[in-house]
Amino acid sequence: MATNPQRMQFNQSLKSNFVESFSFRGHSADGRYAFVIEHRLHQTAQGVVLTLSLACFDKQLTKTYTIHEQQLLSSSQLEAFLAQKTWQQCVFSLQSGSFFEIGHDVLRGKLHSHAGSFSWHLRLQRHHQTWQLNNRFWYLVPFWPRHKLQLADINIKYLGKINSSHVDWAGDFKGSSCHYWGYGYPNEYAVALTHQFNSNREGFFCGFSQRPAAKIAFNLPYCSLATLKIGQKTYHFQELTQCLRHQVTALDDYHWHIRYQNADYMLEVEIEGANPRLTPWVSWQDMSSNVIKASPFAQGKFTLYHRQSLQVEECLHSQQVFLQSRLPENTASSDEGFWLSP
Fold this sequence. Notes:
Layout: E1 18-28, E2 33-43, E3 48-58, E4 63-72, H1 75-82, E5 90-93, E6 99-102, E7 106-113, E8 116-125, H2 137-140, E9 147-163, E10 168-183, E11 188-194, E12 203-211, E13 223-230, E14 233-237, E15 247-252, E16 255-261, E17 265-272, E18 282-285, E19 290-306, E20 312-331, E21 339-340
Antiparallel strand pairs: 1-2, 1-10, 2-3, 3-4, 5-6, 6-7, 7-8, 8-9, 9-10, 11-12, 11-20, 12-13, 13-14, 15-16, 16-17, 17-19, 18-19, 18-21, 19-20
């Protein structure tokens, strides 16, 4: 492994705008519900802010329920938090009485707001299947790239409940955990993840495109990388020497289309998120007033071709693609709050 996927990357000597987040995503067994629970540390000019957030999605009702809390940590609180060293065994209580606990076998917490409280208590069945980029320098070089992503476990089964005055869910969920760290977020990006295909074989896809802000008259190319796994076969599109050559044909608020290629295969990925009237979405404001949008119910088509013959090797579909994007034209003012209309 390039690096321990559970180890905290945050430290007290980091410069302003460093962000580290560890999140859990899941879909219910019947495909109706989904959730995202995120734990985030952000180094600001005022100090380190901890954010705990929960988003719940109901596909049938096209509803999204959100709650979050933020707290500026004192030096002693930050020191105690970082002394835990790993996101696999991590506990914290906020001043309001909200709290979270991440354990090897459990994920639980509670958040309070003027509109009520949300609580979750989920047993975890981890499979310890990590997705990391093959090139170890991606993680070992501290300041390049400035944004680093890995999936600590691509196949987690959850058993338990999520409750509030609006939500009363109990049962099985399936999903993954995601670990991100870096200086802010890419100026423009899309990332997609799914582990559910129209196939009796187990599968997995994770891919992204990102590019920095351009101080020149034309746009820079996207840096894009991906992995597709279906059954016993895994297809990597991760060569750093080729990462600028994958062709992004669409990237907007609710869509992402790209054609990847390696020495042997081409992979066409079409992610369709539809609009918020038809599909539950969530959007929130990051610390730089840019807007991030996400939905766990985007639809995806994944077509794998042999490069030489153009023969189709796989044609897969998914109704449960987690799609998240950040576009430079989407901004918000600070008085609009944390959660925004998608």
